[in-house]
Amino acid sequence: MDFAALMAAEIAKSKPSSDSKSSTSKKYISKRQAEADREAAYLAEQAALEAKRQARAAEKRKREEEEAEEQAQYEEKRRRLAEETRRHREDKAEAEERARRKRLGLPELPKGGSQDSDDADVEDDGLGGDVPDEDLVEKLRGLGEPVKLFGESHRGRLKRYRRLTTVVTDGPIPTTLQPVEEKDMKVCDPEDVPAATDKAGRHYLFRQLASYFSMVLREWEIALAREQLANKDREQDQTSYASKAAINAMVSSRENMRPLFRKFEKADVPDDILKPVVEIVKAAQERRYVDANDGYLRLSIGKAAWPIGVTMVGIHERSAREKLHDGERGHVMGDELTRKYLQSIKRCLTFAQVRWPPSDIRQLMG
Q1: Cα 154 from Cα 131, distance rounded (Å)
Q2: Which residues sit opposite 317 in a β-bridge?
Q3: What's the rounded Cα separation, in Å, for the pair 289 and 361?
Q4: How many other CB atoms are there within 10 angstroms of residue 231's CB atom?
Q5: Of 100, 143, 195, 287, which has fewest CB within 10 angstroms of its CB?
Q6: Helix-then-strand count for the chain, H and E
Q7: DSSP 3-state assignment of 317?
Q8: Cα–Cα–Cα angle for 69, 72, 77, nearest 5°?
Q9: d(Cα 7, Cα 63) in Å, to the nearest integer?
């Protein structure tokens, strides 16, 4: 081999191949290409994150829709249960009212007469019954009142007319309840108290109770006035402590019973108070004042056991501990208005046994 050929072979070895040129060109890229590659990678990453967010949002929305559907099913089930409970309670009250009417010989209760819808006809509740809408409009116009208020139904319009035309009777406590004769004041037994659906029967019972308490308060005022007149004739001091205490007791009893009369007017007396009050009044009308006082004590204090002494020793409960929370709770601590008119009823009992003494001396309260 000559020298020229040897030199050509060495030069060929020293020249880079095409593959090395391509690898070298790939190692060095332009700034524009690097920026484009970086932007493409960022957009791909954001697209992946957005897809994940949309997937999570779709999953959350699906869970919320399932929970909303479950809540709607629960509310519908609770509404149906409440409706069934209300219907069962109304049927039971209607059955009891029918049995009471049959026992007392009263007319049969009409079917469907206990509906409470505002658009239903107004049944006879002791205030004159329903009034046709045309006549009611003319009567309201004659009184100079609006024919119809916003959102007012026929029943509401009739109640407004009755409120405007009802005469307030004079007495110790002015009331819209019409008084009954003294011979008609005797109330029924507590077991025969009309149900809430019998509005006419309850209205008459409230008239009886209001008339009786008005009679007792009026006789109390007359007795105090007669005593003051007698002291004046005997030239005795009318400003003594006993005289002032008696007058203050009567005045406070009269004022404290006003909320009770308002409840009578609105027929807003719960059965757990109405029935004991009827029991007290019935016993007082029959001059059984000890029994009336017992009824007052059950109403005001109740029959629940009172914790006296040690009620818990060691880790074992005493045998009678469960009785502390059983029994009937009294209403004297319910609220201030209830406490005041219950105490006023007790004061009326104290005066009634002096004004109408019992034939049996054992029926005198201590």
Answers
A1: 9
A2: 312
A3: 10
A4: 15
A5: 143
A6: 11, 2
A7: strand
A8: 125
A9: 81
What is the reported pTM?
Answer: 0.56
| Beta-carbon contacts of residue 312 (< 8 Å; ≥ 6 apart) | 318, 321
Residue 36 CB neighbours (<10 A): 12
C-alpha–C-alpha distance, residues 351 and 1, integer Å: 155
Q: Along the 366 residues of the chain, how does pLDDT read in single tens digits?
A: 566 777 777 777 766 555 555 554 456 778 888 888 889 999 999 999 999 999 999 999 999 999 999 988 888 888 888 888 888 888 888 888 777 767 766 666 555 544 344 444 444 444 556 778 888 888 888 878 888 888 788 888 888 887 777 767 778 898 888 889 988 999 999 899 998 888 889 999 999 999 999 999 999 999 998 888 887 766 666 567 788 888 899 999 999 999 999 999 888 888 889 999 999 999 999 999 999 999 999 888 877 665 555 555 555 555 555 555 555 666 555 688 888 999 999 999 999 999 999 988 888 876
* C-alpha dihedral (70, 72, 74, 75), degrees to nearest 10: 160
Q: What are phi and psi of 313, to 5 degrees?
A: -130, 125
CA distances from 71 to 40, 58, 63, 103 (A): 46, 20, 12, 47
Locate the DSSP E strands across 82-151: none
By CB atoms closer than 10 A (0-12, 13-18, 19+), residue 268 is exposed
